[in-house]
Every structure is written in structure tokens, then in C-alpha cells.
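Case study 2.
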Amino acid sequence: MADTKPTSRSPWCWIPTLYLAEGMPNALVATVSVLFYNDLGVSNEATAFFTSLLYLPWVIKPLWSPVVDILHTRRQWIWTTQLLLGAGMAGVALMIPAPHFIEWTIVFFILLAFSSATHDIAADGFYMMAPTEREQ
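Prediction:
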């Protein structure tokens, strides 16, 4: 049996998909939520109030990032937040026909916002540690 060298993947295999997964929930929360509530007939005042709350996770990101670095590995955070992002998107879709859809969809959009901001922290930290300086 011949010795085989461990092969490492090129950063081009995973970095584009990582950052696509990082940016898409941010766009969903920031842009689509406004269009979503306007199309469902929610007043402009209520839409502005509810969607302004969704920016809070990105505002407190500098305070939250040390906690992310201390508690688990970045890879665990990335996997966990991607699962939460999927659950949050499914939750928004399933709550549209519910009687109190505004409250429930806001809860799921807040879950998406916090998961997206946490994913952003973990992905940036993972990118800084995983590839070599030359590969970056």
C-alpha cells in the first residue's frame, strides 16, 4: 500500500459558497422582508417598525463576536447557523397562512437575522484561519 499525501482542497472550492451562504440571508432579511410585508398588505408604518428591528443583530455584532469565538469552533457555528437559517426560512413560509402571521414571521425573521449575523462572524473568522496567507 503506497503512502498517500493528504490533499487539501483549493480555497476556490469552498470560499465562494461560504460567502454566498453568508450574503443571501442578509439580503433576505433586509430586502425581502420589506417587500414581503408590503405585498401582504401590512401598513408602511408597521413594516418600517418591524423591519428596523431586524437590523439589530448586525449592530451588536461587535459585542457578539467574542462570544462566538469563545463558545465553540467556527466550523460548528457555521453548521449550526446554516441549520437555523433553513429552519427560519421554513418557519416564515409555514407561518404565512397563520392567523397572526405578522408576529410569527417577525419571530422567524429575527431568528434569520441573528443566525445570519452569527454566520457572518464565524465565516469571516474561518476564512482568516483556514487558508494560508498566500491562498487568501
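Residues 13-129 form one domain.
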